[in-house]
Sequence to fold (205 residues):
Amino acid sequence: MTLTEMAAGMDGLAPSCGRTRLIAVDGHAGAGKTTLARHLAAALGGSPVVHTDDLATHEQPFDWTGRLATQVLGPLGAGRGAVHEVYDWHARRFAGEQTVDAAPCVVLEGVGTGRAALRPHLALVLWLEVGPAEARRRGLRRDGPELTPFWTGWTAAEDAHFAADPTRPYADLLVHQDQEGGYRFTPGPAPRAAQHPNPADRYGR
Fold:
């Protein structure tokens, strides 16, 4: 299934957060989640994208669930637009705001967006199929050697997070990227399909 085909099937999913279908794009740091989220949002007609890097901090790289719940999930769940803080990674403080419309689909992008605490609010969990070693090579190539110490600390925190609260076993769809930059979607493990039909079934296995 292509990105266009996957996006076209979103109308068949029930809203998961108020009137909004919240789509999680998860995977290892450096895997290409931000790029995938941008392409997905465009395929959905310009859906808003929430980046969890805007809600995380140096001291709390993964402890952003409370801010997301209060500033984004709460308003969307009530059918209203949301406004969330934006963290400045250079100034090391929250220094801006981002508006999120209560659109039919909102893309939630970042490491850990498919975590257990969020899955009840998600219409779809996507996992980008890039292994941790390759993802980190990409991330270091993107950020440069001067950020190697940051990546060392991040890697340890990410490994601990996924060991305690993995996403891939709960993904509805696995996302594969080809050498030309295109995407292919295949059915994921998605144990919650026992309670909610696997969205991949709409497209055939």
In short: The beta strands are 21-26, 49-51, 82-88, 93-100, 105-109, 124-128, 173-177, 183-187. The domain at 3-49+105-193 is CATH 3.40.50 (Rossmann fold).
